[in-house]
Design a protein that fits this description.
With 404 residues, this protein is of the alpha/beta class. 39% of the residues lie in helices and 19% in strands. The chain is built from 15 helices and 16 strands. Strands 4-5-6-9-7 form a 5-stranded mixed sheet. The protein has a 5-stranded mixed sheet with strand order 13-12-14-15-16, with helices on both faces. Strand 2 and strand 3 form a beta hairpin. The radius of gyration is 23 Å and the shape is globular.
Length: 404
Amino acid sequence: MRYGFTTGSCSAAAAKAATYMLLSGKLKESICITTPKGIDFNAEILNIKCSENEVTCGVLKDGGDDPDVTSGSIVYATVSYLDELDKIDQSDYKSAESDLKSNLADYKSNNLDNGDSQIIIDGGQGVGRVTMPGLDQPVGNAAINSVPRIMIEKEVRQVMEVLDYKGGLKIIISIPGGEKIAEKTFNPRLGIKGGLSVLGTSGIVEPMSSQALLDTIKVELNQKKALGYKTIVIAPGNYGMDFMKETYSYNLDQAVKCSNFIGQTLDMIGDLGFEEVLLCGHVGKLIKLSGGIMNTHSHEADCRMELMAAAGVRAGLPFESLNEILKCVSTDGAYDIVLKTGLEKEFMAQVMDKVDYYLKKKAEDRFNIECMIYSNIYGLMGKTGGADDLINKVVNGERELKNS
């Protein structure tokens, strides 16, 4: 299946081309950027508008074979010289630091003064604004996530260096029609108003055909079985696999990415005769397991806050905290409220007890399963009773492989 490129990649390509045309005075009808995935994006530049102090151009968003609602849209970047009135006072952002948490460093690198070459990145028509805490960007910012901001600045600074430009630039990303398209997304529910988010951690849109993904998962599991594995590590996505690598130095080649299809993957594992399974994933996905939800895609079920509130009830959180949890838009934001009560251990014990119950019910004595839940902000949050022994076993290579 054909992969595509994210709105973040389109934004970076458009910004790079517009910067080149503004600083050089020469026309640029195509541009190449390198995505975080390491794949080059050769973009055609569309609808160019040039003036002495400003250039606007667009890049067509092509999601490949992924059913992406933004495919066919044109992502525009308008690049202009930075006026003194536009320059950011770093003190304006101090109040946002507590909300940024792990994204603070990325945010500063993209928005705060860098000598004489300050770059401001903001959203225009069709790009949403953050109105609720707990997301990648602080309240009030354009919904242009950290990785796209890094991509945009990286590509723009490359052009500035080549053309020996030392001044500042202002970059406005816009997606005409984004307001209407955003109604088909979860943005309104997440508190992102007025348009779409500019997203992407890899720069690549990988096809999300359900059957294709399930077929791929089955192929990978079959390969592991053929190699003699009796124990398998699964994770919904890259974040879970990266957590295993960074925290436990686990070889990612030995793990299988199961996407949202946790239940179906576990059924395949049972059919293939694996003996042990370690599931590792982000709380935003795996909290759903505490309600017995085995397909974690938001289109299937999104009751994260309700399940966190239910765990809070069992852990004895005060009513006011439970009410605040139900108003949250992210699990990290909800957990922050739990931390303020001092009952985080009791809370996670309740979550993991339910997760353990439903996973073992799904396993039906076909295999032993353990689980680890983490957060990008808070690290390891909880684990089932036998998780430590199992992680030690897989990391230390204590598997008993067939034909060894």
